[in-house]
């Protein structure tokens, strides 16, 4: 294990303790200052707070493992934002594939995958349902984007582009999408407001 991984693991443990209000004052103030000045750390702390609040039955080790995985994904997402700011890459806030299964539940029995993303403004929640071995249905909702609706979700390249429009409650549905990597580009009045890189 490298020093970076060791230090990252210790920081995640301290973030969990902070969310549980179990840190001493000096360390709490130190972490709160770091969070206030680091958007990646702030995103990770938000995830940890939600895990602690929603998953009281989870062990600290489970929360740490989930946070570590999502923390790595957040770093990747922020790197994408830096490399191509015009694409407005979304930041992964939650991915149910990282959640431990309840005891006795087989992976094959859990069909639905849930994800949550942070856009530059607002959030997107997505549910993915398998409809065959090689294809999926996606249902999503755009939340608090503060942009004119309806929204247009564009999948694919210009030569094979598919467009889907959100309804009056900002819900959208992609009835069939193949296994693989896809960019979901979200537009408001023809203006790009976010890009989600999704691997199915």
Please, could you describe this protein's structure?
The chain is α+β, with helices and mostly antiparallel strands and 200 residues long. The chain folds into 2 domains: 1-83, no CATH class; 86-200, Immunoglobulin-like (Sandwich), CATH 2.60.40. It contains 4 helices and 9 strands. It has helices spanning 3-19, 25-36, 39-54, 60-83, and strands spanning 91-95, 113-118, 123-130, 135-143, 151-155, 162-165, 171-178, 181-188, 191-199. The strands form 2 sheets. Strands 1-2-3-4-7 form a 5-stranded antiparallel sheet. Strand 8 (181-188) and strand 9 (191-199) form a beta hairpin. Helix 1 crosses helix 4 and helix 3 (39-54) packs antiparallel against helix 4 (60-83). It is globular, with a radius of gyration of 18 Å.
Q: How large, in whole angstroms, is the Cα Rg?
A: 18 Å
Mean pLDDT: 81
Termini separation (Å)? 30 Å
CATH class of the largest domain: Mainly Beta
The outline comes out as globular
Strand order, sheet with most strands: 1-2-3-4-7
Structural class: alpha+beta
CATH topology of the largest domain, what is it called?
Answer: Immunoglobulin-like
- Helix proportion: 25-40%
| Element-by-element helix/strand order | HHHHEEEEEEEEE
Unreliable spans are 1-6, 104-109
Largest sheet: 5 strands, antiparallel
Q: Secondary structure elements and their pairing?
A:
Layout: H1 3-19, H2 25-36, H3 39-54, H4 60-83, E1 91-95, E2 113-118, E3 123-130, E4 135-143, E5 151-155, E6 162-165, E7 171-178, E8 181-188, E9 191-199
Antiparallel strand pairs: 1-2, 2-3, 3-4, 4-7, 5-6, 5-8, 8-9
């Amino acid at each position: 294990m490298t020093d970076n991984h060791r230090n990252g693991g210790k920081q995640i443990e301290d973030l969990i303790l902070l969310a549980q209000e179990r840190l001493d004052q000096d360390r709490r103030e130190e972490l709160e200052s770091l969070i206030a000045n680091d958007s990646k750390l702030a995103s990770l702390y938000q995830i940890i707070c939600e895990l602690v609040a929603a998953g009281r039955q989870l062990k600290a080790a489970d929360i740490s493992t989930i946070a570590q995985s999502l923390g790595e994904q957040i770093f990747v997402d922020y790197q994408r934002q830096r490399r191509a700011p015009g694409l407005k890459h979304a930041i992964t806030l939650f991915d149910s594939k990282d959640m431990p299964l309840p005891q006795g539940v087989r992976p094959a029995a859990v069909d639905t995958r849930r994800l949550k993303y942070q856009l530059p403004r607002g959030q997107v929640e997505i549910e993915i349902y398998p409809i065959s071995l090689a294809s999926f249905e996606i249902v999503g909702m755009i939340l608090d984007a503060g942009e004119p609706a309806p929204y247009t979700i564009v999948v694919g390249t210009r030569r094979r582009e598919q467009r889907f429009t959100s309804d009056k409650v900002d819900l959208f549905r992609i009835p069939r999408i193949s296994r693989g990597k896809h960019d979901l580009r979200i537009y408001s009045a023809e203006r790009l407001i976010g890009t989600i890189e999704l691997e199915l």
